[in-house]
DNA sequence: AAGAAGTGCAACTCCACGGTTGCAATTTGT
DNA sequence: ACAAATTGCAACCGTGGAGTTGCACTTCTT
């Protein structure tokens, strides 16, 4: 469930994937439905949705004969928190190093 | 200065780039110095450092004949904040949509 | 002055990724 | 039972990114 961080960033590092996410933000939808709104083939979209699902940014559920997808905003918030932590730790470490370097 | 968000994620979506960042976390270093610690050519590292610099995750400064790089933790924190925002907005929107759907 | 250390640039290979097309399989509605 | 809608799978193509090698250029050091 808690996919490692890097693949999540890789998934978010693609413009068209964001267009799919924002399109999904208008409401849950299937790959075919999204293909109607975006300049992409259904299959291309399906591939992207798989990527997004594998890193937990999206979840799917069957509704009759269609697979409906939903954005998981929580995953974004979670990722953000982890990134924030790393960022602040980095600053602390750099500050510590600077201290040491200056006291030499 | 404030590079668009997506390229930053693309830069962070690479395992070896993280290894470079963490290596840099031990203290500022040049591409050649890093090449001594990582299983990569100096040129490969230089390319990655360019990518990281273009999205503002790293800054460089000349010291004699070498180019020394430093991690910018603040950029990570900044990116995290923006991501957090997007995530929460998403949840709000989804909640709103759910409301509407249920009151139909 | 000369060699060592470091950077910059260019060309090349390899492969993963985004995208497409085509067809089979499943499910729904009438 | 049949046609339409939807998904699933596989093969294929093109491009860009990661990495390497090789060489020229600059800058220390002695």
Chart the SSEs and their pairings:
The structure is a homodimer of 104-residue chains.
Chain A: H1 5-12, H2 15-25, E1 29-30, H3 31-37, H4 42-54, E2 58-63, E3 66-71, H5 73-102
Helix pairs in contact in A: 3-4
Chain A binds a DNA duplex (30 and 30 nucleotides) through residues 14, 16, 30-32, 40-44, 46-48, 64-67.
Question: In words, what does this structure look like?
Answer:
By secondary structure, chain A is an alpha+beta fold. The first copy, chain A, is 66% helix and 13% strand. Chain A contains five helices and three strands. In chain A, a hairpin with a 2-residue loop joins strand 2 (58-63) and strand 3. The longest helix of chain A has 30 residues, at 73-102. The model of chain A has no long low-confidence stretch (mean pLDDT 91). The A-B interface holds A 6-15, 18, 25, 27, 70-71, 73-81, 83-84, 86-91, 93-94, 97 and B 6-15, 18, 25, 27, 70-71, 73-81, 83-84, 86-91, 93-94, 97.
Keywords:
homodimer, 104 residues, alpha+beta, Arc Repressor Mutant, subunit A, 3 strands, 66% helix, DNA-binding
Short note summarizing the structure:
The structure is a homodimer of 104-residue chains. The first copy, chain A, has a 3-stranded antiparallel beta sheet with strand order 1-3-2.
